[in-house]
């Protein structure tokens, strides 16, 4: 009888997933935050992918005779330098576009790495409880006692500068955020009727955890990942600002801000352009996360 019931449930559930996907897509498109913030992030991705084609100049080319040229529209501006140049004559717009590559690489890879580690631990802690929950919870509390920025600087200083070190530092620090949220969501989902039904049908614990509970935790998890991307962009900019991210030859927004701060009275645009890009990108990730949560979370839709 159990096998017949299972086959019947599988047959009944064959159609609804498509309907749920269409409903989720309509809900996403109905959220202005998802449309506009997501569109802005897609634009950044395209800039990062096609930087060699889009950038008007080589970001490393120096021309001391063209140093601190103002942006287009200001007195003394020269054609072809839309955002002006820095004190070494390098094109600010080209460096800004190439800096998008580092920012998005760190944002996506570090956020997904932190999400993977934190989600697995949170799922097991929330579902199994007992000693597993106690160990994970104590580990999270101990880890969160360390100041995140100082800990990230310490990790990068030990591992050495580079994108890989920045990604590892962010993932090691921010997995706790995912573990706490996923643990709470898993504890709530474990009491739902569909989990009880899955146990009656003979599903194993891992099958229930990853096939039943995880998909229902995914909407909250997806929103949290986008928020983490914004945090990762900020952390990378901070590390670049203090010279602990990639090499000084590689254009980064944090490095541009650090350079522009030194000549802010002579060439304010060198400081303002990467700061505006950083602010807009973090805002877009935050708004996208809020829009995803509103569109996919059943509680927010009520």
Characterise the protein shown here.
The chain has 302 residues and is an all-alpha fold. The protein has one domain (75-301): MetI-like (MetI-like fold). It has helices spanning 2-12, 16-29, 32-49, 51-54, 92-128, 130-144, 148-159, 163-189, 193-200, 205-241, 253-262, 268-296, 298-301. Helix 3 packs across helix 12 (268-296) and helix 5 (92-128) packs antiparallel against helix 6 (130-144). The longest helix is centred in the middle third of the chain and has 37 residues, at 92-128. Residues 1-17 have low confidence and may be disordered.
Number of domains: 1
The counted number of beta strands is 0
CATH architecture classification name: Orthogonal Bundle
Major sheet: size, sense and barrel closure?
A: none
CATH superfamily: MetI-like
CATH topology: MetI-like fold
- Class by alpha and beta content: mainly alpha
What is the rounded distance between the termini? 37 Å
Number of helices: 13
Approximately what portion of the residues adopt beta-strand conformation?
under 5%
Estimate the global geometry from the Cα principal axes: elongated
Describe how the helices and strands are arranged.
Layout (H helix, E strand, L loop, with lengths): L1 H11 L3 H14 L2 H18 L1 H4 L37 H37 L1 H15 L3 H12 L3 H27 L3 H8 L4 H37 L11 H10 L5 H29 L1 H4 L1
Helix pairs in contact: 3-5, 3-12, 5-6, 5-8, 5-10, 6-8, 7-8, 8-10, 9-10, 10-11, 10-12, 11-12
Primary descriptors:
mainly alpha, 75% helix, 0% strand, 302 residues, 13 helices, MetI-like fold
């Amino acid at each position: 009888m159990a096998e017949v019931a299972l086959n019947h449930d599988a047959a009944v559930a064959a159609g609804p997933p498509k309907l749920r996907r269409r409903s989720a897509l309509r809900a996403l498109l109905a959220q202005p935050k998802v449309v506009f913030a997501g569109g802005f992030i897609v634009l950044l991705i395209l800039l990062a992918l096609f930087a060699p084609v889009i950038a008007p100049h080589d970001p490393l080319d120096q021309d001391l005779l063209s140093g601190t040229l103002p942006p287009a529209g200001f007195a003394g501006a020269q054609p072809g330098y839309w955002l002006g140049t820095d004190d070494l004559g390098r094109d600010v717009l080209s460096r800004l576009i190439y800096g998008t590559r580092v920012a998005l690489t760190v944002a996506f890879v570090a956020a997904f790495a932190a999400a993977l580690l934190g989600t697995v631990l949170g799922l097991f802690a929330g579902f199994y409880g007992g000693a597993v929950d106690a160990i994970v919870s104590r580990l999270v509390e101990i880890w969160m006692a360390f100041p995140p920025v100082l800990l990230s600087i310490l990790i990068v200083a030990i591992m050495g500068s580079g994108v890989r070190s920045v990604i590892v530092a962010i993932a090691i620090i921010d997995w706790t955020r995912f573990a706490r949220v996923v643990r709470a969501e898993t504890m709530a989902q474990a009491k739902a009727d569909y989990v009880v039904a899955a146990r009656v049908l003979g599903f194993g614990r891992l099958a229930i955890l990853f096939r039943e509970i995880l998909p229902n935790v995914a909407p909250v998890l997806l929103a949290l990942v986008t928020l983490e991307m914004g945090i990762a962009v900020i952390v990378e900019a901070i590390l670049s600002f203090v010279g602990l991210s990639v090499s000084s030859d590689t254009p980064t927004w944090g490095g541009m801000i650090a350079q522009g701060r030194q000549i802010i009275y002579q060439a304010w645009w060198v400081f303002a352009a990467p700061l505006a890009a950083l602010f807009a990108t973090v805002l877009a990730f935050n708004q996208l996360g809020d829009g995803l949560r509103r569109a996919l979370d059943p509680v927010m839709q009520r």
